[in-house]
Amino acid sequence: MRRRTFIERATAALGCSGVGVAAAGTATAMQGERVSERTTSTLLAGTKYETDIVTIDAPADGPTAVVVGGMHGDEPSGYRAATEVASWDIDAGRIVAVPEANRVAIDRGTRKNDQGDFNRKFPPGEQPTTKLARALWGVVTDADPDVVLDLHSSKGIYRTHESFVGQVIFPSRVEPAPQYAEQTIAEVNETVVPWYMPYHRYKRGNLVDGDHPLLMHKVAGDLGQPGYLVESTKFILDPRTAAQWTASIAETLLAKHGIERHTGGDAS
């Protein structure tokens, strides 16, 4: 629940772990007497995998969330929604966002990078198996999160199209994630998904329990923290709308964990 200066922790880790995190800049967003600090740093700077880390520190103490997008380069709603989250102002707490975790695959528009499926490199109870996976896991652990979101998309719809998992939230087994997932699904289906798109109503998937080498399973198994793998479909849904829906889910979930987006006006 404590807010910490992420760049200071990451820079300290750089000296002993070899995980490349380089400070890039800090900006301050002001709304009246409110001040939010937004810091951008670079993960694995100078390599083909380099990508931005955006840390938002609210003016009031509160929980910390890590939000990851772009694990797969052919899932635009995930990284577009994470990019939107990284632009928010928040009332309390901290968000550490990695909007485009798998830059190589995003640039190519492919699911995999040159080391295979990035989201299969996080075995619970063991070290991540690639340099990029270890670097991203270092971001997660350095943030000491109270909640983690991993934003994805799928070609089809869960339980409608075989082998696809669109329109699903997979919560970790850790409480209160299952309850918050159910509540978020009900709210988003009521306020975001149009009534004339019944097949696009979100559902709750299986509980994530730490038995697969996925990022969210490692969060559940190694950190024992609430987490959510969010999947929005590409089926009869344009990427911009899918990203908006995904961002709405992220906003609702984070608010339930005490990290509320400030919507009182545009930052200047």
UniProtKB/TrEMBL annotation:
Region named Disordered: 107-126
InterPro entries reported in the protein's UniProt record: AstE_AspA_cat
An example molecular function term from Gene Ontology annotations: metal ion binding
Pfam families, sorted: AstE_AspA_cat
Cofactor(s) this protein requires: Zn(2+)
Basic and acidic residues: bias regions: 107-120
The entry's keywords: Hydrolase, Metal-binding, Zinc
Keyword Hydrolase: yes
Signal sequence, start to end: none
Record domain Succinylglutamate desuccinylase/Aspartoacylase catalytic: where: 61-154
Protein name per UniProt: Succinylglutamate desuccinylase / Aspartoacylase family protein
Source organism: Halogranum rubrum
